[in-house]
Design brief:
Blueprint (H helix, E strand, L loop, with lengths): L13 H19 L11 E6 L5 H12 L3 E5 L12 H8 L5 E5 L3 H9 L5 E3 L7 H15 L6 E5 L4 H13 L2 E5 L8 H6 L4 E4 L2 H5 L4 E4 L11 H7 L7 H4 L7 E4 L11 H4 L6 H21 L9
Parallel strand pairs: 1-2, 1-3, 3-4, 5-6, 5-8, 6-7, 8-9
Helix pairs in contact: 1-12, 2-12, 3-4, 5-6, 5-12
The structure holds phosphoric acid mono(formamide)ester (CP) and norvaline (NVA).
Length: 309
């Protein structure tokens, strides 16, 4: 059988997602009870980070250690990858020494090239195109707070970049209605939008997007690698801030999510992100359980303990 990768949300089936979320719930319960399952004993995850990270690194590294395995942090600065060793060669070598590899890459093409040459599963831990691991956490968190997200209305307000793309793909995969409000010039990739058909609708204003929404989501206005555009972006994104007025247009029990890190006073006000509708801390914690379930599946070929697949 060919190696399974997790490069986009379309790499798992609906049944596998059901099992993944069930398993993630079991892992969360186990941790809360102080139990220490060791399903990944002696398994090793390689972690290539071309960009900074707090949540992704910690959730994978701690997640591996908690299940009896280990993780190796590989910065291009300290490996031959940063000195021009071909991605193909690096993939061939690294994948002979670890059980799976997660990559946070500047360029999505690097991730794909690596995966094509890897003997072991490769996981997309954010690229300039998408951030599917974050969506595992977001969908799981929504489910735990409000039940199934299928048929719900989700508003994306802000940059039509990697996180937005993954929300569009998630709308297809998890069957919700997504409305996107991005400033002119910052709309999501047309191909990704078109592939989503009637699952996604682009609107001009943040108010239109949020009207009646069950979930409101945003992201930073200047992503990693866009620091030099920051001043221009601050001007261009004026009017796309999630504040209490805007949240007032959503359903009364609407949730607020943000993948973090957040900039209070820019894409979201402090009263919203620190307020009662915000579930951002549960969302961040969920990275660990959902990725543990994902890594178990990719390394072991099953979701241990799950009854749904
Ligand atoms: N949300 C997220 O991926 O956070 P980090 O950049 O800290 O990993
Ligand atoms: N869009 C952000 C997400 C960070 C998790 C970035 O790419 O920097």
């Amino acid at each position: 059988m060919s190696t399974r990768h997790f490069l986009s949300l379309f790499d798992l089936t609906a049944d596998e997602y059901r099992a993944l979320f069930e398993r993630a719930g079991q892992l969360q319960t186990a941790r809360e009870r102080g139990e220490r399952p060791d399903t990944l004993s002696r398994r090793v995850l390689g972690m290539i980070f071309e960009k900074a990270s707090t949540r992704t690194r910690l959730s994978f590294e701690s997640g591996m250690a908690q299940l009896g395995g280990s993780a190796i942090f590989l910065s291009p600065r300290d490996t031959q990858l940063g000195r021009g060793e071909p991605i193909e060669d690096s993939a061939r070598v690294m994948s002979r020494m670890v059980d799976a590899i997660m990559i946070r890459a500047n360029d999505h093409g690097m991730l794909e090239t690596f995966a094509e040459n890897s003997r072991v599963p490769v996981i997309n831990a954010l690229t300039d195109r998408s951030h599917p691991c974050q969506l595992l956490a977001d969908i799981y968190t929504y489910q735990r707070h409000r039940g199934s997200i299928a048929g719900k209305r989700v508003a994306w307000v802000g940059d039509g970049f990697n996180m937005c793309h993954s929300y569009i793909n998630a709308a297809r995969m998890f069957d919700f209605e997504l409305t996107v409000a991005a400033p002119c010039g910052y709309e999501p990739d047309t191909e990704i939008v078109e592939a989503a058909g009637d699952r996604v609708r682009l609107v001009e204003t943040a108010a239109e997007a949020v009207q009646g929404a069950d979930l409101v989501v945003t992201d930073v206005w200047a992503s990693m690698g866009q620091e030099e555009e920051r001043q221009r972006r601050l001007r261009d994104f004026h009017g796309y801030q999630i504040n209490a007025d805007l949240m007032g247009r959503a359903q009364q029990d609407a949730l607020f999510m943000h993948c973090l890190p957040a900039h209070r006073g820019e894409e979201v006000t402090a009263d919203v992100i620190d307020g009662s509708q915000s579930v951002v801390w549960d969302e961040a914690e969920a990275r660990m359980y959902t990725q543990q379930a994902l890594v178990e599946f990719l390394m072991l070929g099953e979701f241990p303990g799950a009854t749904t697949a």
